[in-house]
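Provenance

Sequences were taken from public entries as deposited. Structures were produced by running a predictor on each sequence independently, with no templates supplied. The record for SPBc2 prophage-derived glycosyltransferase SunS from Sporomusa sphaeroides DSM 2875 is shown for reference.
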Amino acid sequence: MTESDKNAQLPITISLCMIVKNEEATIERCLLSAEGIADEIIIVDTGSTDKTKEIVSKFTDKIYDFEWIHDFAAARNYAFSQATQEYILWLDADDVFLAADRELFLNLKTTLSREITVVSMLYNLGFDQYGKVAFQRRRNRLVKRERNFRWVGAVHEYLEVYDRSFNSEIAVTHQPLSHDADRNLKIYELRLQKGEKFSPRDLYYFANELLDHRLFDRAIEYYQKFLETKQGWVEDNISACSKLADCFYNLNDIENQLKYIYQSFQYDVPRAEFCCRLGYYHLINNQLKQAIFWYKLATQAEKPADSWGMVNFKCQTWLPHLQLCVCYSRTGQYQFAFEHNEIAGTFIPEDPRIHQNRTYLKNLLKI
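Predicted structure for SPBc2 prophage-derived glycosyltransferase SunS:
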């Protein structure tokens, strides 16, 4: 048996690399969820003044200080440079592996081919009131150390990877308790003051920060600048249209809201989210025929081939059916209303609206 064959039978080894600052509320939860996954834990602290280091020291002695220079990529690259194992995994302090995903990851450790250099994982970003994933996307999470992949971007940084990759079904779950709402915006404003030229990606993420701070006019300016470059990733183009529609909705500018909903169709076939937006517009204007058209299209809309962009599960599952129940009920088509309510109920069976609609429609249909 060759040395290569022997290695192929052994589990891969993993360095977990994290950058932290004042994470005493979440870091232990994160590290506990990674026990058995990480063979080595690298913690780079950018200036904690709480008990973060004390808590981390229970898990690892590889704790490094890094002077904060308003550059997330620089800090992450430094963390990666301290790793010694075959693969590097990265997490944020408010991320966790849920039990089922831990099991999937432990299985991956024993089955992953060492020819794979990049493993992507799902990222659960939000949950509904029933504990089901509401928003999700995919991110590159595990990389082969010897390839020396680098982080790029002072804020909203990304890992620049290439070569043989594997899209796993393992999910990292984001469970924030709080965050510095102004941190990223301040970094972008500082870069603007220095006269830095923003890349298309910078324009998009700066606009996101402005929108989060409800600075709608400035957000519109930078989303439009981003789209005008015609160099954006298609998923970011579509997302920018969605966020521009949100901005104009908040400014009560319906004409431009509709403009950017329709502009999203330039980048891909109509997505369920935009069909639901149009359905809602026509529903509140009592244009029920048009509302039914768009909500039905939402139920039939082609789902993106992967989940690298943001996935809005409610628009792909229960929401258009529940709204079709409303539309058909208003037009007196109670059987159709009942059928769509029942379909919605397969996704959210405990929602009180499902039970109320069911009782109301059964009485009308004399079921």
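The two ends are 71 Å apart (CA to CA).
Residues 70 and 183 are 9 Å apart (CA to CA).
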